[in-house]
Design a protein that fits this description.
By secondary structure, this protein is an alpha+beta fold. The protein is 34% helix and 19% strand.
């Protein structure tokens, strides 16, 4: 999957609404340790929230770009406030069924 359509992003935003952030980006920004934590989180779920703390040196949109490009197959779904929603489908058995791109 190359890009998410607006309909697919809306579906994922709805699913992510109740989730709590499970990865925190702190003073050092997006480090290899943060990318490793995101990869670990994607081993057990397809949709995660990442919280950018006040001390983080970068803007939330920049952090979302770094996270989605630094983790293979990850897509930035949404940024709201200092929270980022990321999606990566499970390569073997995806649990989240996205709406078709053309529908």
């Amino acid at each position: 999957m190359d890009k998410l359509t607006s309909r697919q992003r809306a579906h994922l935003r709805k699913l992510a609404h109740h989730l709590k952030p499970i990865v925190l980006v702190g003073t050092d920004g997006v480090t290899p340790a943060v990318l490793s934590s995101v990869n670990d989180a994607f081993r057990t779920r397809e949709l995660i929230k990442v919280k950018l703390q006040e001390s983080a040196p970068l803007h939330v949109k920049d952090a979302a770009g770094e996270l989605s490009s630094g983790v293979t197959g990850a897509h930035s779904v949404q940024t709201i406030g200092r929270t980022i929603v990321l999606y990566r489908p499970d390569p073997e058995t995806p649990e989240i069924k996205l709406p078709k791109a053309g529908s």
